[in-house]
Structure formats: C-alpha cells, structure tokens
Design brief:
Layout: H1 2-7, H2 23-32, H3 59-62, E1 64-73, E2 76-84, E3 90-97, H4 103-120, E4 125-130, H5 133-140, H6 148-161, E5 166-171, H7 178-189, H8 226-234, H9 243-253, E6 256-259, E7 262-266, E8 272-274, H10 278-289, H11 296-303
Helix pairs in contact: 4-6, 8-9, 10-11
Length: 306
C-alpha cells in the first residue's frame, strides 16, 4: 500500500478508511424501501403442459475418454494413448517412432494415434486429455502454431476431429497421466524389429500373495500325511523306509493326534489343526479368499486347519 501511495502521489487522491456499518442499519434501510419496488407474484405457469424437458442419457454419460503422451529420450521415441469407455474399461495403445522427432511431435503423434483408434471403434463423443499444454492449446485454437514442423500435425488433427459428433480437449497435470506416460516410456526404451507382433497389455489385480494358492502336487495320489496316518493307525512303515526314516516317522508322529479317521496336528498353543489333502486345501483357500466365511478373522481360523 505504501508503494501504491508513492506512485499515485502525483494525483489528487484522498484515502479514507472504510467505516463499519451496523447490520441493523442495513435492515432498517431495506425495510423502509420494501414497498417502493413491489411486484406482485405471478402464479400462472404458461408451459404447464410440459411434463419433461429432456429424456435419455446425457452426452457426459455416453462420452469416452482418451489420454495421450509422448516420450523422447536417448533410447528412442515412444508414444502411448489410453481409451476409457463409459463403463471404465481401459484400452491401451502404444507405438515406437523410428524417425527423428521432438517432444512436441511425439505428443502430436500420440494424440493422432488415439484419435484414429477412437474413429475405428466408431466413438462419437470423446474427451481428450493431455499433459502437453502446447499441443492442447494449439489444437483448441488458443495458441498459434508457429513451428513449421507442427503445422501439418495441427491440420491433420483438425481433419480427424470432423469424424466425431462431439470432441473436447483438456489439459491436465502429468501426475494424472501415469498410464499413458508409462506406455510411451515403455515403447521408447523397448527395441523391437518390424516382424515382431506385441499384443496390447493386460493388467491383472491380485488381492493376495501368490504363495497363498501354491499347493504342492501329491505323489501317487496320496495325501502328504499318508505315512504318518499309516503309522498311527497300523504301526506300519513305508515299504522302502530305512532305519533313519523310521526314527524320523516316530519322532514326527508324536505331534499328531488321530480322532477316528481324522488326523490332527498339535499347534504350539496345543490347538488341534485338521490335516487336509490338496483338493480340500484348494477348496478351503478359494472359499476363504472369496469371502464366503464373512470376516477375515474367520478366514484365518479356516486357514489354521491346514
């Protein structure tokens, strides 16, 4: 404020601080002028026969989304684009550029690749997102295209846009364009010959570690506790067991309990854990991880049976 006062000191300006106004004064003023601009209410509704102004899905619900990105580094040039359906399905696209190009050219190439893929899918309404402010604002016409290398790209995009019923271009930060950026970086770093065909990427989501479903195959169709069960029930050793194997079986069986035909193993806290074969183990694991038994704590109890 002091700086502004010095700059405006040559003018005849008087500074006065704003005075406080009580709320009651404003209310009294409005009450005194309430009848001067009175206008009676109109209760008639001329379009009362209209029951609905618009029916059907909005263009927002039917629109696809497309994000693109280009990458140029010492290893090469790559482009990536992702088409997202209204249902949320992602369709990744990636390509490697085997010709010299700048970062802006790579961005235009990625955008054109995504637009052509959308045209092949006969998409009519498309929202395009990119993290290159120059490309987005040039396509929208907000910025002038001065680089001669980009003029033809801008013209090609304008021709492709005519194939859509409605298309909009938006700029968003690079942090929100992770998938397209990853595809472009992958294409720029991976060198493939012309004869190699690489199918689109398929991303899966695993909720549990891989070892949870890793169950060893049982030999000879017998469960893993067959020798232990035979010794406890019939005091019988395996046919080819030597003296060392027999001592090991006797030592191991001390930690097992047989109840009828069901074999249990004693835990460290003296809890009995039922021994199951591979088929039953897979069934229990599947039921636990699908949430059939409710809470995860219940699932741990079922896992304890293993």
């Amino acid at each position: 404020m002091a700086r502004l006062q010095i700059l405006l000191s040559e003018y005849d300006i008087v500074y006065e601080s704003q005075k406080s106004i009580k709320g009651s004064a404003i209310a009294d003023f409005l009450a005194s002028r309430a009848m001067e601009e009175y206008e009676p209410l109109r209760f008639d509704f001329p379009d009362e026969y209209l029951m609905c102004i618009f029916e059907g899905e909005s263009s927002k619900d039917q629109s696809w989304k497309m994000s693109f990105d280009g990458a140029s580094n010492a290893l090469g040039h790559g482009i990536g684009a992702v088409l997202v359906s209204p249902e949320g399905n992602h369709y990744p696209l990636t390509a490697r550029l085997n010709f010299f190009c700048t970062n802006n050219i790579a961005e235009y190439e990625a955008c054109i690749m995504g637009l052509r893929a959308a045209i092949e899918r006969k998409i009519e309404i498309l929202e395009v997102y990119g993290d290159s402010a120059l490309v987005i604002y040039q396509i929208r016409g907000d910025w002038e295209v001065r680089d001669s290398k980009l003029v033809k790209y801008r013209y090609l995009v304008a021709e492709l846009v005519k194939e859509f019923k409605e298309v909009t271009f938006h700029y968003f930060p690079k942090e929100e364009n992770q998938l397209a950026n990853a595809l472009a970086t992958l294409a720029s770093m991976f060198k493939a010959n012309r004869e190699t065909e690489i199918m689109p990427l398929q991303m899966s989501i695993y909720e549990v570690p891989a070892h949870c479903f890793s169950i060893e195959k049982e030999s000879y169709g017998r469960p893993w506790f067959h020798d232990i069960l035979e010794y406890i029930k019939n005091q019988r050793y395996p046919e080819q067991a030597n003296e060392n194997d027999k001592r090991t079986i006797r030592r191991i069986t001390a930690g097992f309990v047989l109840d009828g035909d069901i074999l249990y193993k004693r835990g460290k806290d003296q809890m009995l854990l039922r021994c199951v074969d591979a088929v039953e183990a897979r069934k229990i694991l599947k039921e636990v991880h699908e949430g059939i038994f409710g809470t995860h704590a219940m699932g741990l109890l079922w896992l304890g049976r293993l």
